[in-house]
């Protein structure tokens, strides 16, 4: 079973905050790095559409792609509810089917860590490069090696959501040899007088900064910034749990 089929409903109920924060920060990033405001934006692994909808409200022409059709159904409903125009397509980020169409591409919430080999990560970067116009930019985040190996295991078992209609529990472990973090998600969702149980296992790969940069450059990008805090534009630190990248497609 593909990820985010059962979990889509759970995700939509409690995980919009991060994408909304990224949308709020986007204008400041555009200004800080002197990027062209507006234009066509490709939101990769767009999920339930929070960032895509917010970007459309800011005036971007947005196309969102995700491998989960269940998440895209939520994204379309979100756009309709917000009264904005955005396109959504079911597509694997390793097989992006665009050519020179976008001014900006984004990929949020460590979605790229779900690619468990450098080969797959490179394919994703190459697809983004093809999708961008010459001089276009790619803005994304990833969990760092420190984040997955040190920060995540500090809470090996945690309740992520606890409401009258939903209980969500995460159990986390890290394989140091493979550099892969695994999260077992068990959720109970109320359906009328009964409860529906769902379970998924999510895995994320920890990539060194040098590997990410090499793969970006091999795909035709130059790195403009590597940050440990996007809100304050603080450079990446050794103990940063997350890293934000801004890369420019070489014309």
From TrEMBL:
Q: Which domain of life, per UniProt?
A: Bacteria
Q: What InterPro entries does the annotation carry?
A: Methyltransf_25, SAM-dependent_MTases_sf
Secretion signal: which residues? none
Q: Where would I find the Methyltransferase domain in this sequence? A: 42-136
SUPFAM superfamilies attached to this UniProt entry: S-adenosyl-L-methionine-dependent methyltransferases (SSF53335)
Sorted alphabetically, the keyword list is: Transferase
Output the Gene Ontology terms for molecular function: transferase activity
Q: What is this protein called?
A: Methyltransferase domain-containing protein
From which source organism is this entry? Levilinea saccharolytica
């Amino acid at each position: 079973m593909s990820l985010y089929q059962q979990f889509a409903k759970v995700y939509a109920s409690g995980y919009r905050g991060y994408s909304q924060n990224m949308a709020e920060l986007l204008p400041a990033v555009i200004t800080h790095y002197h990027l062209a405001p507006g234009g066509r934006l490709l939101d990769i692994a767009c999920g339930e559409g929070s960032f895509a909808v917010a970007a459309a409200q800011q005036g971007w022409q947005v196309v969102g792609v995700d491998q989960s059709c269940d998440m895209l159904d939520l994204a379309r409903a979100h756009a309709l509810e917000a009264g904005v125009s955005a396109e959504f397509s079911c597509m694997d980020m390793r097989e992006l089917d665009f050519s020179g169409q976008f001014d900006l591409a984004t990929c949020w919430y460590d979605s790229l860590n779900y690619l468990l080999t450098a080969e797959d990560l490179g394919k994703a970067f190459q697809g983004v490069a093809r999708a961008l116009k010459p001089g276009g930019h790619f803005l994304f985040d990833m969990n760092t090696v420190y984040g997955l190996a040190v920060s995540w295991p500090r809470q090996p078992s945690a309740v992520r959501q606890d409401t009258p209609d939903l209980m969500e529990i995460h159990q986390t472990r890290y394989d140091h040899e493979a550099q892969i973090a695994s999260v077992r998600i068990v959720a109970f969702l109320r359906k009328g007088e009964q409860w529906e149980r769902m379970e998924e296992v999510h895995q994320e790969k920890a990539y060194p900064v040098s590997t990410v940069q090499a793969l970006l450059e091999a795909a035709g990008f130059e790195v403009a910034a590597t940050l440990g805090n996007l809100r304050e534009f603080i450079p990446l630190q050794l103990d940063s749990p997350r890293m934000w990248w801004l890369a420019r497609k070489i014309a």
